[in-house]
Design brief:
The chain is of the alpha+beta class. 33% of the residues lie in helices and 26% in strands. The protein is built from 16 helices and 23 strands. The chain binds adenosine monophosphate (AMP) and glycine.
Length: 462
């Protein structure tokens, strides 16, 4: 019997060769890993789905998980931000490897605490997670290492900030420094809006400590694009392209959300642009983080604006996007688990990932009212029918079961109805056919997911 966690050379061999047969051979020898995924959204359901399929994975837990994740993993009632509780669970249950989904535990140092306890974990350290946890840190890093981003100034004093926006003029962007659950960015079209945002963050302290400092930056025009890479401290391995839709309603209108749908591949991100993003933004960032003594490991998710001068960085996230992770996991042909272990072990240098040629589309079904107030506990039916359609996979983002076993909504974003297809158009048609079979009167979705991709593709390739 070989145990991966205790026999590093065996694992290294697998990672170097990265060949399915080798992985399978080891798995047959009974060397399965005990894996814990942290989080409870559609991203974590997709990760669990991919990890559960790995021949290297012997036992899969998810903390806290949801009703859909329970089909792939054993859900354990430990909150995703309960750092002590997660470390206790991992040490008490002989976990070999932890995959951290959301940003909050990363920024709170979960990976550091796990590694100190001798448990391997996928994701950045607390000091590296500052790329998402502190906009000021991210902007200063870009300035120091000439990584293209919007011009910016930092403020703690509201009077100074107001004076600055009056000089700079609108449109202008006001950002809370810290994590604000996606709500800490105001793209102000007028000076009044900018001053109201400054007041809200620095005076009213609507975001608490996260808004104690703000970044005010130049408004960038262009098309927004997301870029994902696995990073092992030194090497960056780009993932397939994927793009989300951030606003709540059709036509990219309405309030910002975590993401109402996604598609992969994203035609806007062609090879030439991807190479530029790697050379001008991602690789310089990986080098900069290493030079700063904060080597980055995990998924680096760059939010970019593609303008006349090329790609510029809007923001970094230090985790997979959601729902982008759903379409990426569906298209990934390679085993996800060794790829994540390789990122943790600094072994991505010779690694490559294979992707299905098919396209994937995810349509998010959310509770009516989201991203504002919404009801929980409303019943959902029809998923069995929906999931029987060709190419369809439904990932749960916020579901629970009531005392009778009925599936209910338990969050703002509730389901990710995904489909694979030979083209974006086919994947999208399949996803919406599945949405139409879901019986959830209290839910809604956008009807135009992937419209930008469709518009960009020639009619014959849609
Ligand atoms: P962030 O969380 O920093 O990505 O900001 C949220 C959203 O605000 C982005 O997805 C963009 O749509 C928009 N945004 C952020 N920064 C800028 C900027 N400098 N110029 C234009 N739009 C921006
Ligand atoms: N879908 C965007 C995000 O996960 O932040």
């Amino acid at each position: 019997m070989v145990s991966l966690s205790k026999h590093e050379p065996v694992l290294l061999l697998i990672l170097r060769q990265a060949q399915d047969e080798v992985v399978f051979q080891v798995a047959k020898d009974g060397a399965g890993m005990r894996v814990l995924v942290v989080g409870s959204g559609g991203r974590e359901h997709a990760l669990c789905w991919a990890l559960a399929a790995s021949p290297l994975c012997d036992k899969l837990y998810c903390a806290p998980g949801n009703a859909g994740i329970a089909g792939e993993a054993e859900c354990v009632p430990v909150a995703a931000d309960d750092i002590q509780g997660l470390v206790r669970f991992a040490t008490g249950n002989a976990i070999d490897f932890v995959v951290v989904g959301p940003e909050v535990p990363l920024v709170k140092g979960l990976v550091d605490r796990l590694e100190e306890a001798g448990i391997k974990a996928f994701g950045p350290s607390e000091r590296a997670a500052a790329l998402e946890g502190s906009k000021s840190f991210m902007k200063e890093l870009c300035a120091k290492y000439a990584i293209p981003t919007a011009a910016f100034r930092r403020f703690t004093d509201p009077a100074d900030a107001r004076r600055y926006v009056r000089e700079a003029g609108a449109p202008i962007v006001v950002k809370a420094d810290g994590l604000a659950a996606g709500k800490g960015v105001v793209v102000a079209q007028s000076l009044e809006e900018a001053e109201a945002a400054i007041d809200d963050m620095l005076v009213q302290r609507s975001f608490g400590e996260a808004g104690g400092e703000i970044v005010i930056e130049e408004f960038l025009e262009g098309e927004e694009v997301s870029f994902f890479a696995l990073v092992d401290g030194t090497h960056a391995l780009p993932l397939a392209s994927a793009q989300d839709h951030k606003t709540a309603y059709d036509g990219d209108k309405g309030p910002n959300t975590g993401g109402m749908g996604a598609y992969s591949p994203a035609p806007v991100l062609d090879e030439i642009l991807a190479d530029r993003v790697m050379a001008e933004i991602v690789e310089p960032t990986v080098k900069a983080m290493a030079a700063e003594g904060r080597p980055f490991k995990g998924v680096l998710f760059a939010g970019l604006m593609i303008g006349p001068k090329g790609p510029r960085l809007l923001e970094y996230n230090v985790r997979f996007g959601d729902p982008e992770a759903q379409v990426l996991c569906l298209r990934l042909m390679s085993d996800l688990l060794p790829a994540l272990v390789a990122a943790r072990d600094g072994q991505l240098g010779n690694f490559h990932l294979r992707w299905k040629p098919e396209a994937a589309v995810a349509v998010v079904m959310a509770a009516k009212g989201y991203p504002g107030p919404y009801r929980k506990g409303t019943p959902i039916g029809g998923l069995d029918r929906a999931q029987k359609l060709a190419g369809v996979y439904v990932f749960h983002a916020g579901t629970a079961r009531d005392a009778t076993g009925q599936l209910t909504a338990n969050g703002g974003r509730v389901l990710g109805v995904n489909a694979l297809g030979s083209s974006i158009g086919e994947a999208r048609a399949r996803a919406y056919a599945a949405v139409d079979l879901v019986d959830w009167p209290d839910g809604f979705c956008r009807r135009d997911i992937a419209w930008r991709a469709m518009a960009r593709l020639a009619p014959g390739r849609r």
